Amino acid sequence: MDVKFCPLVSGSSGNSTYIGTKHTHILIDAGVSCKQIVEHLNELHVNPADLDAIFVTHEHIDHIKGVGVLSRKYDIPVYATPGTWEGIGSTVGEFSHKNIRYVYKDEQCVINDICVKPFEIPHDTIEPVAYSVFAENKKMTVATDIGHITDTIKENVYESDVLLLEANHDIEMLKNGSYPWPLKKRILGDKGHLSNVAAGETLSELMSGKTKFAFLGHLSNENNEPHLAYETVEKILEKNGVKVGTYFKLDMAARYSNSLAVEL
Asked: What gap in Å lies between CA 5 and CA 260, rounded to an integer?
């Protein structure tokens, strides 16, 4: 095993993904408490004090809740776009000046033996990004909180060995659910969240022989069900000639617990 990829938590209540090699350990987002992040890392036998960086996608609380405490407690650099830092403000407390780091869309950032590339996504925050991470000739991408699929997203997701892709809601559940109309409109909008159908269509279009594993993540607690997301995406994939099973695996990123750790 050279690289490990594991969604620690994924959903509307919190998001964080671990990616690590023998020499480098990073998180994409830390949207639950520091205590919870530490517990999830311990399950992977990763010491939080060994984290080299936290990369933040955007300033919504389900992606930054534990970032401040983690950074202060373990002296961890935090990377985000200038717009995201503006959005974070004092929401999660103060950061040591030396641990405030900036990333810019399409500019690669090297942390030891890992290369991280942020890319632009459409979401209702100041300057959101998703991330592709390169290590040991492998590519891993975390792409959630996406209002719609753009050419930039397609270019960056393509040929990922492992992909965490948003499947936030079932459209009919959302439309018929209890959310007020302005919130429904936001979620369904161009800067909202990706539906199960959109996730399936995206995977079908971007599948390559290199892609071995895809997680469906950031599911809404009220407007989706894991089995429904899985079945919807699997059906679309198979309709487009992509067989889920031996050569390509599809799984759900768990809301409150570590998902399957993929070792490459």
From this structure: 9
Residues of the chain with pLDDT under 50: none
Q: 257 with 221: CB under 8 angstroms?
A: no
CA-angle at 151, arms to 147 and 152, nearest 5°: 80
pLDDT of residue 209: 80
In this predicted structure, what is the pLDDT of residue 246? 78
- Separation of alpha carbons 10 and 30, rounded Å: 10
Q: How far apart are CA 250 and CA 160, in angstroms?
A: 14
d(CA 53, CA 24): 9
pLDDT in tens, 123-157: 999 999 999 999 999 999 999 999 999 999 999 99
Give 223-260 as a DSSP string.
S--HHHHHHHHHHHHHHTT---SSSSEEEEPPSSS--P
Token pair belonging to 11: 């959903």
Write down the CATH number for the domain with range 4-263.
3.60.15.10
